[in-house]
Specification:
The complex is a heterodimer of chains A (about 210) and B (about 80). Chain A has helices at about 1-35, 40-50, 55-70, 75-85, and strands at about 115-120, 120-125, 130-135, 145, 155-160, 165-170, 175-180, 180-185, 190, 200, 205-210. In chain A, strand 10 (about 200) and strand 11 form a beta hairpin. Chain A has two domains: about 1-70, no CATH class; about 75-95 and about 105-210, Tumour Suppressor Smad4. Residues about 80-95 of chain A have low confidence and may be disordered. Chain A contains four helices and eleven strands, in the order ααααβββββββββββ. Chain A is of the alpha+beta class. In chain A, the strands form two sheets. A six-stranded antiparallel sheet of chain A has the order 2-1-11-10-7-8, with no helix packed on it. Chain A is about 30% helix and about 25% strand. Chain B has about 80 residues and is mainly α. Chain B has a domain at about 20-65. Residues about 75-83 of chain B have low confidence and may be disordered. The chains are: A alpha+beta (about 210), B mainly alpha (about 80). At the A-B interface, helix 1 and helix 3 of A face helix 1 and helix 2 of B.
């Protein structure tokens, strides 16, 4: 009888342990994905869950959850830059009241690329790189988009990409940068141009579209 | 005998209430940050209330965040599509 009870008890613990192991692996996997979606390395999320294996680790995981909830996520970079007008003040530029472009209300995950085209120029890019430099100098690197036109500065502006959204930052070129006709100054910092129609670099007007 | 049963029932109810209160208090520690995470991801913060479900609640919360597209965008660094 005692042996039967002991076997039943051990079986219960074994089942509980199996459930705990499956739960731990599942939670680690899900936290890996959540951390990646926030722009953090996935292993950080999984490690936070694995800390619960140790006794005091549960408390640390709880603290990490609070930190994660209120910290600045890398994913927020572009959105915050678009929201803060003085993110990148340009040298020698008078601080002007920025004409803020409204952020799109909801951005769905979109796997398509982007195209800036017009005036005989076609620039295709995607969010595989965090930023691209728009320049008039030919023969640039893989993160440079060349618009061979005298009015385009070298460099002229910077394109920022993140999770289906793109931003544009003027680098102070004399030719000027315009978003749907509105002048973009270096003092404005990066602006979200996901929903705009045209971007003008110097004398070159480019239409923004998805590929 | 009836008195003993009454005491036992009272004790059981007290234990049940104590467990419930502790559960809700602990769930609150998870609900507050989860509410903020849901809102930052673009979901309704009400989804954080799944933490009130015993045992599987936190798994539901994690699954929603892990396996759905975040309406406010995601920060995956890997290329999402070919050039």
């Amino acid at each position: 009888m005692m042996g039967f009870d002991l076997a039943a008890l051990l079986g219960l613990f074994g089942l509980t342990s199996a459930f705990a192991l499956v739960g731990l692996v599942l939670a680690g996997w899900m936290c890996w994905r959540i951390a990646e979606k926030a722009g953090l390395p996935g292993w950080a999320g999984a490690a936070a869950i694995l800390l619960t294996v140790t006794g005091i680790g549960s408390l640390i995981s709880l603290i990490l959850l609070w930190v994660f909830a209120f910290m600045r996520w890398p994913r927020d970079g572009l959105a915050l830059a678009g929201a803060s007008p003085a993110a990148a003040p340009g040298p020698g530029m008078a601080p002007a009241a920025p004409a803020a472009l409204p952020l799109p209300p909801r951005v769905l995950a979109d796997r398509r690329g982007w195209m800036l085209s017009g005036s005989g120029v076609a620039l295709a890019f995607d969010d595989s790189r965090p930023s691209y430099t728009l320049t008039g100098a030919a023969g640039g690197g893989p993160d440079e988009l060349v618009v061979a036109e005298p009015s385009v500065g070298r460099p002229h502006a910077r394109l920022l990409t993140a999770s289906g959204r793109i931003g544009l930052q003027d680098l102070g070129s004399p030719g000027g940068t315009y978003i749907d006709g509105a002048r973009l100054l270096p003092a404005h910092g990066p602006r979200d141009i996901t929903a705009v129609r045209t971007v003008k670099l110097g004398n070159v007007e480019l239409a923004l579209s998805r590929t | 005998m009836i008195t003993v049963i009454g005491w036992l029932l009272g004790l059981g109810m007290f234990a049940l209430m104590a467990i419930l209160v502790v559960h809700v208090l602990f769930a609150l520690l998870l609900i507050v940050p989860s509410w903020r995470i849901f809102e930052r991801a673009g979901f309704s913060g009400l989804l954080a209330l799944f933490h009130l479900v015993p045992v599987v609640g936190p798994f539901i919360v994690m699954a929603v965040l892990a396996f759905s597209d975040w309406p406010k965008g995601e920060g995956r660094s890997k290329p999402a599509h070919p050039a």
